[in-house]
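Hello,

I think I submitted the magnesium ion job twice by accident. Can you confirm which output corresponds to this input? Input:
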Amino acid sequence: VEDYIRNYEKLTVLGELAAGVAHEIRNPLTSIKGFFKLLTEEDSGGKDKKYQNVIMDELSRIEQIVNEFMALARPQAIHLKESINIVQLLKDTMILLNPEASLRNVDIDLQFDSDAAQIECEKNQIKQVFINVMKNAIEAMPEGGRLKIRGESIEGFYYRLTFEDNGTGIDEKRLEKLGTPFFTTKEKGIGLGLTISNKIITEHNGEFKMESELGIGTKVIIRLKK
Ligand code: ADP
Ligand code: MG
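Support: Only one job matched these inputs. Its output is below.
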């Protein structure tokens, strides 16, 4: 019975998500149609290039929304869990984000209590979580700042990673909405990063938590079972 309920809940969530995706895609589609129509009209007064750029941007946005949605809606039947050192995985993943961090004057400060952080997990999924979380932190510090990443073994059973930034922070009202699909405060945000991250960590029987204070910063805490 429990399984049945869980599957049913999953379907409901997916249905809501699908409705959200349709909604999110409608805006860029309307915009593409409008600008394409302008392009096909005889005299666009030399604005062709501008219209083409808008169309291209909106197509990229649709592509991104569909990609992120597929990552979320993908059936979880394929389990490719392997024993991974997540500290090493985090260090490898950071290489991808270092250019953006230095471009934005964000210092990344790493400290791990041990390198013995073997976790049974799906490597690419956990990597996806690290990217989402670190990207959010960097984006929350437009004037630069510091991202502190800490890793520690808890009671020998868990490995806990914390990502602490001194960026904009989030007020209490918005903090409640975090993880709701498509909730974003960014002009070009999609609002699926936290939903995906939360889902992945939960599927690994772990815990994903966020604490934040407006004007002070945000802390993401990820706990994974060893
Ligand atoms: P997106 O990054 O596309 O907006 P996310 O799901 O990754 O979507 O994040 C949702 C929202 O949560 C962001 O728009 C932002 O308002 C808030 N948020 C997430 N991480 C942070 C952070 N480190 N600092 C401040 N706000 C954050
Ligand atoms: Mg994000």
